[in-house]
Every structure is written in structure tokens, then in C-alpha cells.
Specification:
The structure is a single chain. The protein is α+β, with helices and mostly antiparallel strands. The protein is built from three helices and 14 strands. The protein starts with a helix and ends with a strand.
Length: 162
Amino acid sequence: MTRKINLLIAFLLALTLALTAGGVAEAKNLNVDFTIGYNVFGYVTPENTRKAVNCKMDVTPFIENGRTYVPVRYLAYGLGVAEKDVNWDEASQTVTLSMEGTTVKLQVGSKTIYVNGKPQEMDVTPLLRNGRVFLPARFVAEAFGYKVFYRDDLVGIYLPQF
């Protein structure tokens, strides 16, 4: 019962925030929340203004192999990566995200994530589904200095110093 109430509250909060939706983030946000199975998310900016960014996603986050996958653009925007700093190379199936001096590269099917050119191993790979790339949220968020927590079907990503 509590889980259903938490999900309903998260959904209603995100829906309410959609009414005051802002543009695409341009600076690192304090935190972002994604709810598994719902196509909405919200974030808190450094000015502590609660916003919903692209509140209505066209796909939903999901869990596979014990990892939470979020569509690349929505994960990036929620963290604060500017639209111009989210790049997809079709030929190599590589995603590159850049923000505040950190560059993260991931390739579909590869367990290696490159953070500022240095390789790190993940236990899962980015996935390509129905023409969309989904990234393992934890690895990407941590590469940008965030911490990740899970509560029921909510994935919370936050900057530890705030």
C-alpha cells in the first residue's frame, strides 16, 4: 500500500511540475528523480527551483539485469547536460556527454565507460531499443560526480555536497 502511495505521489508531483516546466538545463543540477515505468521526471536546480524538464518523455525508464536504464537525452538533461553537449555517433553507436569539464563516452554493447578518456568497466552495457539508446543511470551519474539511491521504483540522483 505504501509503495502505491509513494508512486502516486511521485507521479502527481511530476505532473504538477509539468505546469511550470522550464527549458533544457544548462548547468549541473542538484538532483533528479526518475520513476520506473512512468514517463516523467523532475530536477532541482542550484537555485533550488523545482522544475520538470521535458516532463513527458516518449519512453520510460526500466530495470534490466539489476540496473536502471534511462533514455540518454532525458538522463543527460536531468543531470544538467546542455542539449548541445549530448552527441550520438550513429556509425560507432557511441554517446558522448560533456558538462563542466567532464566528458563521458559510452558505446552500445560495450561495458567500458570513458570518463575524460580514462576507461572504467561497468557490469552492463548501454542498450539500443526501438531506435532509442538507454544508459545505465548509476554509471553515468557517478561519472559526473552524483550519488544514486533507489526507493521502491524511484531512482534518485543527487550531488553529495548539497
